[in-house]
Amino acid sequence: MSDTIFHKIMRREIPADIVYEDDDMIAFRDIAPQAPVHVLFVPKRDFSTLNDVPADSAVVIGKLAVAAAAYAKREGFDEAGYRIVMNCNGDAGQTVFQIHLHLLAGAPLGHFGTPGR
Ligand code: 5GP
What we know:
By secondary structure, the chain is of the alpha+beta class. About 25% of the residues lie in helices and about 20% in strands.
């Protein structure tokens, strides 16, 4: 597992707009937002991709999702709606190899999943 830009953000070596942190994760605004709200939830435990998360560590992923939902509620867009996404490897466009959950919200979101789009 190599050091990533997200580890540097966790260690406060590079700046980020941090919106949430607890013992398990950190959440900060994406530097290149794809929606009016675009927050990344990153666990403090190291996993390069979703493929590397064993079944007995499923709680790590669950906590990210629950924290994203809690953030949506706190910010008041839980009823309007939001999307959570985790990219895995090349075809999904994963660029940072420390797992992270994208939270996208703030406007009607387009469809997704079309090859090449
Ligand atoms: P991935 O493509 O791996 O699923 O998502 C990585 C995300 O990290 C991208 O949406 C990208 O914009 C974001 N990102 C990359 N470098 C930085 C950075 O230095 N700071 C922040 N806040 N986000 C970053």
